[in-house]
Amino acid sequence: xxxxxxxxxxxxxxxxxxxxxxxxxxxxxxxxxxxxxxxxxxxxxxxxxxxxxxxxxxxxxxxxxxxxxxxxxxxxxxxx
Amino acid sequence: xxxxxxxxxxxxxxxxxxxxxxxxxxxxxxxxxxxxxxxxxxxxxxxxxxxxxxxxxxxxxxxxxxxxxxxxxxxxxxxxxxxxxxxxxxxxxxxxxxxxxxxxxxxxxxxxxxxxxxxxxxxxxxxxxxxxxxxxxxxxxxxxxxxxxxxxxxxxxxxxxxxxxxxxxxxxxxxxxxxxxxxxxxxxxxxxxxxxxxxxxxxxxxxxxxxxxxxxxxxxxxxxxxxxxxxxxxxxxxxxxxxxxxxxxxxxxxxxxxxxxxxxxxxxxxxxxxxxxxxxxxxxxxxxxxxxxxxxxxxxxxxxxxxxxxxxxxxxxxxxxxxxxxxxxxxxxxxxxxxxxxxxxxxxxxxxxxxxxxxxxxxxxxxxxxxxxxxxxxxxxxxxxxxxxxxxxxxxxxxxxxxxxxxxxxxxxxxxxxxxxxxxxxxxxxxxxxxxxxxxxxxxxxxxxxxxxxxxxxxxxxxxxxxxxxxxxxxxxxxxxxxxxxxxxxxxxxxxxxxxxxxxxxxxxxxxxxxxxxxxxxxxxxxxxxxxxxxxxxxxxxxxxxxxxxxxxxxxxxxxxxxxxxxxxxxxxxxxxxxxxxxxxxxxxxxxxxxxxxxxxxxxxxxxxxxxxxxxxxxxxxxxxxxxxxxxxxxxxxxxxxxxxxxxxxxxxxxxxxxxxxxxxxxxxxxxxxxxxxxxxxxxxxxxxxxxxxxxxxxxxxxxxxxxx
Lengths: 80, 709
Hints:
- By secondary structure, chain A is an alpha+beta fold.
- Chain A is about 15% helix and about 40% strand.
- Chain B is of the alpha/beta class.
- In chain B, about 50% of the residues are buried.
- Chain B contains 30 helices and 11 strands.
- Chain B has a 6-stranded mixed sheet, with helices on both faces.
């Protein structure tokens, strides 16, 4: 089961995934939690910025752009 | 571009935010809410004030206040910064939390967005933990209807245990119901049973244990369960807030810290996650019972638009095209009204002169008042008013639409590489209007290092006061060369200037990140809000009233006295030459090296109060009469400059120096207020000035070396 987990920045645009765990600490963790990124939340990767980063995600009804550094700290399970 | 009367007057508004001055019998109502929910629109609608609004998160960075009356009772409305949470992740959240917690407003109105209620409920639930005196306002009901989102507001009220009012603040709908609900809560006419989130036995037990250890005085002043939960989460800001607002003595703080760390050891760091998860779960459950989506693909249109405007292929071209279009409309549209205004002012000047002659007034008086004050003043109005009256509405339209955050999204990678904050793109956009406003807007950046970078580099973006110079020079030196396509070429030149200023901003940000402000970019998240239909009529009204007239008013107050001073400098002679000439002669060697002349550099220095003055000062200095010539068209201006030895290189270097030089007096003052540091203010002065001198010397030197000029 665990080999199926990837970090959110590696989720291909257009696909969905479920949040499993955050590896961020401190203020970054709080910020991500505040966006509703708790375990079990469904996230959809929408598109990358024209220059490749950040990426826009659909999170609980809002569209939020995250830089790859932050997305890398979110462990997700892709939904197929 | 948040430079309405409200926001600019409150340079450091948060100091006394917590102790608002009250009229006798007045009740305080706090206005909280997520960013971009129309909170400021509600504030404006209730108070009749004009706090600037716009479709992007983080507009309200200061705590504006206004009053209104309902049923013969006075209410003081305090607009808190927009936040997603009260868990003190940023200065704004701390301000909002402290106000609700320690100032104890009679009622807290939480404004929510009907189109994404679930996300907004997080804040509602957090506020309900602190106080039960809450009214929930569900705004943007029309947007929700358009997106086929159905909301059961009575059920929401039932679940939250407080009144819920649906509004459409932009059309004024639901506002009287909102006022009534606030009134009823304030005077205890409503039976409230605020919803409290259950955090699970472990956390609740720990909180109870911790709360039992609070002193008696503390128990009275704050909601104990709430405080205990914050301490368990390891929120350190709450302790300093207790000290600041309740005057809690140091030993007591220490004791609290010790007690909470003891209890926390049992749960480890999982408390924080447990709190947030419980809140999110509860919000999800409530939303699932209140919100019904008729159309699951509610964001289809937004997505389609985003697929184009933020695509790899079209993202940048569209951005440039839009900016170019705005400039082109501004330049080509402003010509005729500008000429008309000039002619009118010229006509009244002749009448004024005749009046002075008839009254037998001395020459110097007529000179100072008419040739100095009046001419400078009318020049500023004739040159500035038409382009601003076109530029600002257009820009406000883009802002209202929700396009600006997409610009930040497109450009963020460049800012990341410069180790700066992605929201710096937004503060730069504000800078187009006014750099002082741009500096204030840097408050939306919560990491201090990146905020300073954005503050210091904001001046690289040409503000509205510098546009006339850029427009005039690109029209007469570059547009002229292009013949029939004059206004197109001028717009292109302007666009080129903006791109240069963008790259310089990035470069200087990167250099600052490696030197004076060392560090790596901190984490940030950027919301791309739903697109909204702008209300054209309101946009026109607002941008003309709030922005155009405001900026013009400021320019005029500066231009009038400056016109006097400059006239005297041009007319008081020492050793056979005017003060202006002495100054110019002194600056000549450096100016030549920079591809300018002494008078141009002198004009920039004398233009320190306001950049709008550079051109009129220059005109005045070139004229031996010591006052402005009758310049009826840009062609006259061109002839005057050519007669004074201008070449294309002079024009280019003047434009470059206009882009890169010290901030104006107002902006520097604002930087001093915002950073509270002389060192940073000085740095903000030095960095762009040195950059400008170096660039001009390089360009002029290269051009001369290659024999191009």
